[in-house]
């Protein structure tokens, strides 16, 4: 009896270890987007900052948190989850999502954001392209050092990057809220503030990122508890709560910080807005420290996404490809794309994220909340949500080419489409049709690993 008790206790990780794992979850999600964009969304929302934050909370915090449970319950990260919808869905949607979240758009966005910050400190904006190229190579060489040994990622992040990011954010937000430099103004957008926050939460890419990061976290916890499945879930819950509490506190602080700048910095966005606020509050030295911290914030997300991308293709290839070799290829491609610059990467990323998010929402909600007998409904909801996501992406890209409101007739028919919630109808209808029309081959199997 005593031995059994001791064995059980050995699977309960000490709080300091849970804090380190939770801190790593925070750091990987924090990245350049979560560090910069909520400030602008708060400024834009002004007097309606709280409804906007609660909208963001749903897509930028709650759903990513549930993503970790989906990965644990579904038996693996993105490729394993997408395979429950079908092999074609896993290969096409899963592969496309990972490539977008990985080397084609989001990872290059991290190093481009880092360069944007450092180039301002050292006045390198007009330097030859070779300087940017060399910086990017060095940046991803450091990233590879963090991820080449998969089981050591969490320890490296928690020891080196997490304390720096948390300390900097707490100092900045605390001073800005105690001594605000302006006042909130009326929202500068026409749409519902909750919908504004909900849709902008897509841009942090935290839900699909969670389905990639979770594999890293589960691997780390599994090694610490010697593969005990119940212990993995229990410790994941505790670490996830810690990590997302950190993230939620920082994000609500940034929303409120941004709201307080509406009367003075209505014409600045993202990095420029945040950096200007820091410059005003802390002077030139503080602004330089902020930009250095931005470099490392972006790196935490690049670390998580590179490892997650490599893990996806290892799973898809059934172990025929090496994790380290895939990681190197991912970083090489990211280096090439990164030299295009941050503005171009952000410009071409946003519409794709509108396509990726709805089916990810469907996948996570069904795996977390529905029993296996609803697998047909899950398939229908995922495919239908993906269909609406394609419409959203096409509408966004046609807008980039000057064709505004190309699908306005359709948007006027679909309830909630003009507010950004058109996927809900497709989710529900797809789930109903799928439940009755699609075969549930795994209806008698558990979703648990």
What is the fold's blueprint, element by element?
Layout: H1 2-10, H2 15-45, H3 49-74, H4 78-83, H5 87-104, H6 106-121, H7 129-147, H8 153-160, H9 162-178, H10 193-200, H11 206-224, H12 229-259, H13 270-316, H14 323-338, H15 342-369, H16 375-400, H17 408-413, H18 423-437
Written description of the protein model:
α5 crosses α13. The N terminus and C terminus are likely disordered. The chain has a single domain, classed as Hydantoin permease (Orthogonal Bundle), CATH 1.10.4160. It starts with a helix and ends in a 12-residue tail after the last helix. It contains 18 helices and no strands. With 449 residues, it is mostly helical.
Task: Give descriptors for this structure.
Hydantoin permease, 449 residues, mainly alpha, disordered N terminus, globular
Question: What is the C-alpha radius of gyration, as a whole number of Å?
Answer: 22 Å
CATH fold call: Hydantoin permease
Sketch the major β-sheet: none
Instruction: Compute the separation of the termini in Å.
Output: 28 Å
Number of helices: 18
Structural class: mainly alpha
CATH class, anyone? Mainly Alpha
Overall helicity? over 70%
Please tell me the overall pLDDT. Answer: 84
**Strand elements, count:** 0
Q: In percent terms, what proportion of residues is strand? A: under 5%
Overall tally of structural domains: 1
Shape: globular
